[in-house]
């Protein structure tokens, strides 16, 4: 049996009825901090994410991270025997995380009433595109739809009039991942309310996380600005509408270097570094409001200066001047970064199928009880015997019969 001890959430058991990204990301965070996560997948191919991304030795490299610290079992939820097994697992779990479309679990026999009959104080975390109620609850959605409706896809674009290309994606499934983070946060809040020594009430609760709402909650002042002023915040490409200079500037060797010198003292340092110490006192650049109003000209001047220097030299000079700056990291840069390595945010993990793999570390960091990457994403059904036999007490004959009947 894998080591399921260690970490601040050791002793907590989470049942995952999740697929794709949002719910599995939530449970990965909980598993990293020590929770015993039991992931239910369909027999055969398993979670569709197992087929996503670049392949290594014929398998998804992403799965090594996405499925880590989880005990993976297979069950065909359309079969009555599988439903019985799931409800028995519910009885052994503190919480359930799911990201089916609203109502789908009910149709499979897992209504809230059925789940609470199996475990009255169960915490249920539901993640969906639009939420569990409302006029749009039944619409199909993935993370990209949540990002668009939540307002993020509009804001990640280049400035109006600069390109006819589609609005730029962030490059990762951020809508799903943010929803997963909120689900993990909400689940722990519900467990606290249930189990806290002085304040707990012993009750199970359900939480409702929507992809669209998770993204909308991130948009800083965009909504109050519209409500109070009628202004619609527009995309600004690499810059920030409310602070300047903050942008990415091309170096002589073709790399993008981000420079955030958007306070008066920082801008003075940058101007001095550029050999233009008086620039900070020029009328068009004196104070942040003036710099924002003249940001195109300012960025052009900074870009002309950065184009004279290699990226490494720019980083060295800007660091010596204590100006926030860096080249735009690639995955290779992240893997080599000494700070990430020092803090365990880039780790080599032995994957039983793929061999040595690089994994991101555990966030948040709790130095006194940090959790661990106990194992990488396992094969489909790797823990069937362990969970069905060890946890639920089914005999070898019963498990064999389930396999024969296509239940697992």
From TrEMBL:
Pfam families: CoA_transf_3 (PF02515). SUPFAM superfamilies: CoA-transferase family III (CaiB/BaiF) (SSF89796). It comes from the Bacteria. InterPro entries: CoA-transferase_III_domain, CoA-Trfase_fam_III, CoA-Trfase_III_dom3_sf, CoA-Trfase_III_dom_1_sf. One of its GO terms (molecular function) is transferase activity. Keywords: Transferase. Transmembrane segments: none annotated. The keyword Transferase applies. It is an enzyme of class 2 (transferase). Its EC number is 2.8.3.-. This is CoA transferase. It comes from Sediminicoccus rosea.
């Amino acid at each position: 049996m894998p080591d399921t001890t260690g970490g601040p959430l050791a002793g907590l058991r989470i049942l995952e009825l999740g697929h794709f990204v949002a719910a599995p990301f939530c449970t990965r965070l909980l598993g990293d901090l020590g929770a015993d996560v039991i992931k239910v997948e369909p027999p055969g191919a398993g979670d569709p994410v197992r087929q996503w991304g670049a392949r290594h030795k014929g398998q998804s490299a992403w799965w090594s991270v996405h499925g880590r610290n989880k005990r993976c079992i297979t069950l065909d939820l359309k079969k009555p025997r599988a439903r019985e097994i799931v409800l028995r697992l519910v009885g052994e779990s503190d919480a359930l995380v799911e990201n089916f479309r609203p109502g789908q679990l009910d149709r499979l026999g897992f209504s809230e009433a059925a789940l609470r009959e199996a475990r009255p104080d169960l915490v249920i975390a539901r993640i969906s595109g639009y939420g569990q109620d409302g006029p749009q609850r039944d619409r199909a959605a993935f993370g990209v739809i949540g990002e668009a409706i939540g307002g993020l896809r509009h804001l990640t674009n280049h400035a109006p009039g600069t390109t006819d290309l589609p609005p730029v994606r962030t490059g990762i499934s951020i809508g799903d991942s943010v929803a997963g983070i909120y689900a993990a946060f909400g689940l722990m809040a519900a467990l606290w309310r249930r189990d806290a020594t002085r304040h707990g009430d012993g009750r199970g609760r359900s939480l409702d996380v929507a992809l669209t709402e998770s993204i909308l909650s991130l948009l800083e002042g965009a909504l109050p600005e519209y409500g109070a002023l009628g202004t619609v915040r527009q995309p600004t490409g690499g810059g920030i509408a409310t602070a300047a200079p903050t942008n990415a500037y091309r170096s002589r060797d073709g790399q993008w270097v981000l420079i955030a010198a958007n306070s008066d003292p920082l801008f003075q340092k940058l101007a001095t570094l550029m050999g233009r110490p008086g620039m900070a006192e020029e009328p068009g650049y004196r104070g942040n409001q003036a710099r924002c109003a003249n940001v195109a000209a300012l960025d052009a001047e900074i870009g002309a200066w950065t184009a004279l220097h290699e990226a490494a030299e720019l980083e060295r000079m800007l660091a010596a001047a204590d100006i926030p700056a860096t080249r735009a990291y690639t995955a290779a840069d992240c893997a080599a970064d000494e700070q990430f390595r020092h803090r365990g945010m880039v780790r080599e993990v032995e994957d039983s199928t793929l061999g040595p793999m690089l994994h991101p570390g555990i966030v948040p960091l709790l130095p006194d009880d940090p959790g661990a990457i106990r194992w990488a994403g396992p094969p489909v059904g790797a823990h069937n015997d362990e969970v069905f036999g060890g946890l639920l007490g089914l005999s070898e004959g019963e498990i064999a019969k389930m396999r024969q009947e296509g239940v697992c």
